Amino acid sequence: MFKRILIANRGEIALRVIRTAREMGIECVAVYSEVDARALHTRMAHVAVRLGGKLPSESYLDIDKILRAARETGAEAIHPGYGFLSENAEFARRVEEEGLAWIGPPADAISAMGDKIVARQKMTAAGVPCVPGLVDPVDDVAIAIESAESIGYPIAIKAAAGGGGKGIRIVRDPGDMESAFRTASGEALASFGDGRVYLERYLDSSRHIEVQLMFDAHGNGVHFFERECSIQRRHQKLVEEAPSVVLDDAARAEMGRVAVQAGEAVGYRGAGTVEFLWSGGEFFFLEMNTRLQVEHPVTEMITGVDLVREQLRVAAGEPLGYGQDALSINGHSIEVRVNAENPFNGFLPATGTLENLRMPGGPWVRLDAAMYRGLEVALEYDPMLAKLIVWGATRDEAIARMIRAIEEMNVGGVHTGLPAALQVLMHDRFRSGDFDTQFLESLEIRSPEKFEGLVAVAAAIHRHLGARRRALSPSDAARGGWLARSRAETSDHVQRAGVHNAAAGSANGEMTR
Amino acid sequence: MKTFVEIGDRTREVEITERLGRLVVHLDGEPCDVEYAEVDGYGQAVLLHEGQSYAMSIAGGPHEIAITLAGYRYDCVLEDERERAANLAAKASNRGGGVVKAVMPGVVVEVLVEPGQAVEEGQPLLILEAMKMQNEIAAPGTGVVKALHAEAGTAVASGDKLITLVAPES
Predict the structure, then answer these.
(1) Most CB within 10 Å of its CB: which of A234, A294, A433, B40?
(2) Which long-range contacts (CB under 8 A, 24 or more apart) does A420-428 make?
(3) Cα Dmax for chain B
(4) What mean pLDDT comes out for the span A56-82?
(5) What is the number of other CB atoms lying within 10 angstroms of the CB of residue A443?
(6) How far A20 CA lies from chain B's nearest CA (Å)?
(7) Mean pLDDT over the full length of chain B
(8) For residue range A8-29, what is the model confidence (pLDDT) as tens digits?
(9) What ipTM, to 2 d.p.?
(10) Do A356 and B44 touch (CB under 8 A)?
(11) Residues facing B110 on adjacent strands
(12) Helix A307-315 × helix A296-303 angle, to 10°
C-alpha cells in the first residue's frame, strides 16, 4: 500500500479522501489555491503545498503545478476526487508517465466515456441499450432540425464535450429548435471550446438511476447496486437515495449486470458510475462518470463498504478479493446536497460568509463537509458546502431521520437548498416513491407561513438589540438617535398608561420630536 | 417602536417596548409573550413562545435579516415607521419604470434590445452567463428601454445595473 498520496482537489471530497487515507495509515498531501490557505482540507492533510492563484486554472487545474507538488513531496499516487482534473485523460496519462499511481480508471477509458459520441458507439457495440438519437454530433442548424424530426420530439441537446448537466437543453416544440440549438452550441463553444452538440430523444417522466462499479486491475468487477438521483433541477442533483424504490430484485440484477458489461467494454479499473434513464420499466445508458461521485456515501451506507478504501486498494494493485455474491443491501440511505443557492429564486447561486453554523448529529447521521464559520462562499468553485447523509432500516425511517437532521442544521449567512430538500422529503409524491426527474422543478419552494409571525418577532428583536448595542458603544454616533427614540417611547407609554401629571406633560413637551 | 417586517408578500407589524429591562412585544397589535436569548454572539438564538422552544440562526441587519428556523429560511426586510414612510414616497415617485439588476455575478454574453425599444413583460433583454450557464434575463414589466448599462463581454457583480426601463407612454 502507498505511504503517501497527493489529493488534487479541495473541499469536502479532499477531506473525504484524507479521512480514509488517515485511517489506512497513509499520509496525505493537500494542494491549495490562494483562497484556500485556511480551508479545511489544507489543515487536515499531513503536508500542504501552496499552488497559488485564485482561478481554478491557476491551481487545481494546473497539471504541471500538481505534478511538481507530487514530486517534491514524494507522493506515490494521486487521487483526483471529482470535478477538476478527475475526468481529464491527459492528466491521468501524465501522472502515470511520472511513475506515479493514478487513483482512477485508465486514460483510455476516461477518453472513451468522456466523449459522448464515442461512449455511445462503444455501448451500442457492447449491447448496452441507448436512448434513440444521433450517433454523430452536429454543428449545423439545418442538419439538426432535420435529424430532430427523425428522432422525434421532445429532444435533448447536449454538448459533445459536456458533463455535469452543463450545456443541456430540452426542446419540445420544433419551432424552438433553431434558437435552442444556437444557444446550446454557443454555450458549448464557450465552456468547452467545442460547439458540436448531440441530439437525442428526451424521455418524459423518466428517472435517473445509476449503478456504482468497482473494478480491480486483475479483471474482477462488481457493482454496488443503484442510486436513485431523480430529485434534480437543471440536471443538478439535490436529493439522492439508495436503493431505488422502482427496482425489484430482477431489475436491479439486470441493471447491475449491464453496468458491469459497460465497464468491461472500456477496460475499466477503479470506481465508476454508469448512469441510466429509467422510463416505463425500460432503462437506457446515459453516460458513465469515470470517477468517484458526489453521492457515493449513500452506497457506502447501505453496503458497508468504504469506496475510497477500495479505490486506494485497487490503485495499489490489490485484487478486490470478493465477488458480487458477497455484496448485499442493508437498509436505506438518503443524501441531501447543501448547496449555496437560493431555492426561492430559481436556485440561483448564492454568495456570502458563513456567519454561524449549527451542525446536525446523532445516530446514523453523517455530514461530509468542508465548511467552517467564517468561510467566504465565492463563485470560483463548486457551490456545494456539504453533504448530509443518513441511514435508516427502512426508507420511511431514513426520511424521518433526514428531516430531523435538516431541522437541526443551521447555515447562517448564505442561502442553501435545504428548504427545498425539506419540502421534497415532506411531499406525498416523494414519500410514495412516485416521482421523476421533473418533480423538483414542479415544486414552488416556500418556507411555511406558520413560522412567519415568530420569525418577524425575532427579526425585530434582533434589530432592536443590535441598535441598543450600537447605542451603548461609546464611539458610535447612533447613540443620539437611540436615546431620542427611547425618550419619545417612554413618554408615549406614560401617556397611554393614563398618567397626566404636570411633570409628565412638561417632559412630553421637551422630549418629543 | 414599531417595526414592519416584510417576509415574502406579507408584512407583519412588531412593536417592541422595553419596560424594566424586559422586552414587551406586540405582533400585529396582539400581545405576544416571548423570551429571546442570544446564544453565542454569532447569530445563534433561541426564542421561547407559549412553552415551545424555537432555535434559530440570525444573520444580517438592520434592514435585511435572514433567519433559519427548523430547516427553513426566511428573508426579512425591516423598516421602522419613519423608514416606511420614506420608502413608500420613493416607490410612488418611481412607478412604471425600473432598473433591471444582475441577480448574480456573471458575464453579459449578448444584449438583445436597443435603447428606445419597446419591450413586453417576460421578453428576454439579455443573456447573462454565470457558473457556465447561460441565463436569459427577462423584462419584469412592459416598458421602453431607456438605457443599457452593460454590453456583451461586461462582467457584472450581483446587484449591478443592467438595463433601465421606463413606463410606456400611453
Answers:
(1) A294
(2) A420/A238, A420/A343, A420/A347, A420/A445, A421/A238, A421/A239, A421/A336, A421/A337, A422/B71, A422/B72, A424/A231, A424/A238, A424/A239, A425/A239, A425/A334, A425/A399
(3) 62
(4) 96
(5) 16
(6) 30
(7) 87
(8) 999 999 999 999 999 999 999 9
(9) 0.78
(10) yes
(11) B127
(12) 100
Distance to chain A for B141, nearest Cα, Å = 18
Residues A394 and A207 sit within 8 Å (Cβ to Cβ): no
pLDDT above 70: percentage of residues in chain A: 94
- In DSSP terms, B7 is beta-bridged to B10, B76
Q: Rounded distance, CA A360 to CA A475, Å?
A: 39
- pLDDT single digits (tens) A468-487: 888 777 666 667 777 777 77
Question: Distance of alpha carbon A504 from its chain centroid, rounded?
Answer: 63
In 3D space, the residue among A36, A31, A67, A81 whose CA is nearest the CA of residue A54 turns out to be A36
Give the bridge partners for A369, in sequence order: A386
Cα separation of A78 and A312, whole Å? 10
Q: Which of A291, A313, A337, A401 is catalytic?
A: A291
CA distance A349 to A340: 6
Q: Tell me what pLDDT residue A475 has.
A: 62
Q: With contacts defined as CB-CB under 8 Å, which chain B residues touch A452? A: 7-8, 10, 12, 74
A469 and chain B in contact, CB less than 8 A: no
Q: How far is the C-alpha of A205 from the C-alpha of A65, rounded, in Å?
A: 45
Q: How confident is the model at residue A123 (pLDDT cuts 50, 70, 90)?
A: very high
Q: Determine the residue among B4, B13, B27, B57 to mutate to test chain A binding: the one whose Cβ has the most chain A Cβ atoms within 10 Å.
A: B57
Pairing state of beta strands A410-412 and A356-358?
antiparallel
Q: Of A391 and A192, which is predicted with more confidence?
A: A391
CB contact under 8 A, A452 and B36: no
